[in-house]
Amino acid sequence: MEIKVAFFDVDGTIVDNHSTHSHGSDMELVPASTIEAIKLLKENGITPFIATGRSPFMIEDLLEGLEIDSYICTNGQYAVMHGKVIHEAPYSETLLDEIVDVSKKHDIPLLWMPAEHYILSGANQELLLSGLEAMKLPYPRIQTDLEKPDFKVYQMVAGVTKENEHFFESIKEIRIVRWQENGVDLLPLHGSKATAIQTILDKIGLKPENALAFGDGFNDIEMLQAVGMGVAMGNAHKDVQKHANYVTKPVHEDGIYHACKHFGLI
Which domain of life is it from (predicted)? Predict the structure, then answer.
């Protein structure tokens, strides 16, 4: 099995969100060993991709600092390879209407994610703001009454506790994936990081066994299963780790470098 591409989740994988270091930029939260590992992978002919639930504007610092020009964003709804968009799947107007209807009925805040920014709408916004703050993510624009966007939406996030997430189960065309105590991704039924990865592999003529992926969250499970070698971080939930081929050390213990060394890639 020859690895030619490597896909990296961001939060909890590349970025140590629980680091006590100052946070002027995401690059300050990337372990030095991870920076070195990605540099060595490139020198050894392995192309790195970022694969994240974030919007593109939220990873600009990482792309520049790690010298990466290929990425999957918004959990697979938007993908760029060598600076060119190769895949995009915005939410349909019908699906957005259904999500907004549930949100209004139950006073649930929503985070709308186009490529260039994100917008928080609805009631009880503190549910999502607390989660964004905990993950050291940028403060969103606020537009309380947003219902009909005039832009493409690549991801929707709802501020809802576990006991109330069933409100969205009436929408048959979404999957509910929890990423934080008060936050869930409302993902299109057939959209995922894995879907975007397959598009990329098809485009460059590679097979899943030529790909490696690192992740720690529930939204990474399909990605870990879609490649020849899926690596879960040591800080990942046990239910995520059981879907991986290999469990490495936590992000703050040089997990990415350790796994790359383990597999002889660097």
Answer: Bacteria
